[in-house]
Amino acid sequence: MWSGRSSFTSLVVGVFVVYVVHTCWVMYGIVYTRPCAGGGNCIQPYLARRPKLQLSVYTTTRSSLGAENNVDLVLNVEDFDVESKFERTVNVSVPKKTRNNGTLYAYIFLHHAGVLPWHDGKQVHLVSPLTTYMVPKPEEVNLLTGESAAQQIEAESKPTSALDEPVSHWRPRLTLNVMVDDFVFDGSSLPADVHRYMKMVQLGKTVHYLPILFIDQLSNRVKDLMAINRSTAELPLTVSYDKISLGRLRFWIHMQDAVHALQQFGFSEKDADEVKGIFVDTNLYFLALTFFVAAFHLLFDFLAFKNDISFWKKKKSMIGMSTKAVLWRCFSTVVIFLFLLDEQTSLLVLVPAGVGAAIELWKVKKALKMSVVWRGLRPECQFGACSESERKTEEYDTQAMKYLSYLLYPLCVGGAVYSLLNVKYKSWYSWLINSFVNGVYAFGFLFMLPQLFVNYKMKSVAHLPWKAFTYKAFNTFIDDVFAFIITMPTSHRLACFRDDVVFLVYLYQRWLYPVDRSRVNEFGESYEERPQRKLHAD
């Protein structure tokens, strides 16, 4: 049986290694592009001819542009230098159609200087929406005093049904890039990602590709969006430009496609925005480190869940295990999941929390069947057959919880009353969940004390699931890295560092109480009680 479990774990680790190697190979293929070795299939860069270029940005309410009618010129950069970085802020007039929950588009043209883009056969252009639709964030109010006067006026000016409907929001940033490498492509093996951004022209006997213009959509963040109302006449737009290499361009195209694929799979704009933040707000080398950290996090998550479930499936008694600590972990995990759900946290954080909550509920069901607290439901305990270790475990557990309640309950009630008086919430449910989760985050370490107290009294840690603890410990330190990368509530971020202390204390107890073969292990067995294997007859 042991070899079967070992083989399965080895298979999982092997698949993980193959996945990491394959991903590294794919990333290398993205960053490195093989140049043309010569011959008639080579495609030369038009920028190598050093043409005089001009950058023009227009706005219109139409998604397709056929002529220069009904467009507004918002930015015109003459003598545009593709090597020079710049950033300019302009005021854009908002049409009435856009103010009435409509859409506004930006058309970016890169064309020859002194020639209108509609009359230039060698111009390149892209279109990007300057607006997006999002449901406004629910307003937070003081639950005892009600809404403020300003909030009442604003709420009365909107229909009740409109408060839950998506409204048009302004994207105040437009980031442009031009690929400046004098790279010669092989026409027989053009990369598919770059090919859709390329426009070819025939100059004599040679084929050239025009400047590759790119719009960086990853720089548009949800936190920067501005709601558009009917009184908005003008809005600021920051147009920034920087050159980009071919390798980085291909990488960025793939990242944008990945974010778009997430939205197609049902991820909201806010969830996709968390992924954008990882790419935009992180150094490229740190981003590569983040990828490997995330891959190991996924592996350790799977192994921790697998060993935790295996441990509880084989466990025969609650000797040495604090039932109240198990109940508390279940309660705290469910409360944290409901809190993250109420805060509309990223699915990157929400999904693992939901899986953990489901496992904790199953563990509580299993623990209650074994616990001496429910000995009235166990026939062997009614006749005094329960072991002395079980009784001692329950006695120590109850004793620790009694002392802990003197400190814990007043602090939790006091914190809930204080937040009700001084903090604004969306609803009474939001206040209740926040009160519970603040107690979980603030005093979660204290609720681990019953298990630590039981370990101290029994002078043993052999009853704990150390394999699962080891994988969870690795993930806890990995979570410390993600706490600075992924957007999450501050209390949840601080809880990541609190868990570090918990695992360090457990490791100290494991060192303090060495293994004794006469002690009962996590499966309700001791080494001395195991039946000796029969020797094979020669």
Explained architecture:
With 538 residues, this protein is an alpha+beta fold. The protein folds into 2 domains: 42-137 and 166-281, no CATH class; 290-516, no CATH class. The chain has helices at residues 2-31, 96-99, 149-156, 192-195, 246-264, 269-280, 284-314, 323-342, 347-370, 379-382, 388-422, 428-443, 449-458, 466-482, 490-512; strands at 42-45, 53-60, 72-80, 86-93, 105-112, 124-129, 131-134, 167-170, 173-179, 185-186, 200-203, 206-209, 213-215, 226-227, 234-244. Strand 11 and strand 12 form a beta hairpin. Helix 11 (388-422) runs antiparallel to helix 13. It is a multi-pass membrane protein. Belongs to the CLPTM1 family.
Please write out the topology.
Layout: H1 2-31, E1 42-45, E2 53-60, E3 72-80, E4 86-93, H2 96-99, E5 105-112, E6 124-129, E7 131-134, H3 149-156, E8 167-170, E9 173-179, E10 185-186, H4 192-195, E11 200-203, E12 206-209, E13 213-215, E14 226-227, E15 234-244, H5 246-264, H6 269-280, H7 284-314, H8 323-342, H9 347-370, H10 379-382, H11 388-422, H12 428-443, H13 449-458, H14 466-482, H15 490-512
Parallel strand pairs: 1-12, 9-15
Antiparallel strand pairs: 1-10, 2-3, 2-5, 4-15, 5-6, 7-8, 8-14, 9-13, 11-12
Helix pairs in contact: 1-7, 5-6, 7-9, 7-14, 8-9, 8-12, 11-12, 11-13, 14-15
Transmembrane segments: 7-28, 284-305, 326-341, 403-421, 427-449
Membrane topology: Multi-pass membrane protein
Family: Belongs to the CLPTM1 family.
